[in-house]
Amino acid sequence: DRERLAGEAVSRQSDGSPTRLRGRVTDVEGKPLEGQFVLVYRDEGMIGRPDLLTTSDEEGGFVLNLAKGGKYYLGARNRFGGPRQPGELVGKLAESPDSSVEVADGEVVEGLAITMEEMW
After folding, report:
1. How far is Cα 32 from Cα 13, in angstroms, rounded to an integer?
2. By CB neighbour count within 10 A (0-12 exposed, 13-18 middle, 19+ buried), where does 93 fall?
3. How many other CB atoms are found less than 10 A from the CB of residue 72?
4. Of 1, 69, 94, 101, which has the highest C-beta tally within 10 A?
5. For 44-80, what is each residue's pLDDT tens digit?
């Protein structure tokens, strides 16, 4: 099921778009986390279905191809769907109080960091 979701996630991205977000998902000790769902929202509440999602690769890396520039809110979970559960790994964009990033049309923002920790 995870592979199907990941495939759907990639297919919803704007292939070939010059507007991109790139970064890395790690645990609190800095270890890369593979297979995490990186979620992108246009709404600050970050609730409901994300506008875009992808999964992190074996080095924790992710790339999000956006249709256009704007303000986006990023988060990550180790499972997709439903409310967050105790014991689930969750994370938000580091070094951003509201987990947001702004990107201009045609811009590539690199070096984004999402740190995940277990939720209680």
Report:
1. 23
2. buried
3. 21
4. 101
5. 988 888 999 999 999 999 999 999 999 999 999 998 7
From CA 94, how far away is CA 36, in angstroms rounded?
16
Q: Give Cα 20 distance to the centre of its chain.
A: 12
Two tokens at 20?
A: 């991109």
The position carrying tokens 């297979």 is 35
Task: List, in order, residues 6 or more apart from 84 with CB less than 8 Å away.
Answer: 77, 90, 119
Whether 63 and 32 have beta carbons less than 8 Å apart is answered as: no
CA–centroid distance for 47 within its chain: 14
Q: pTM for this one? A: 0.82
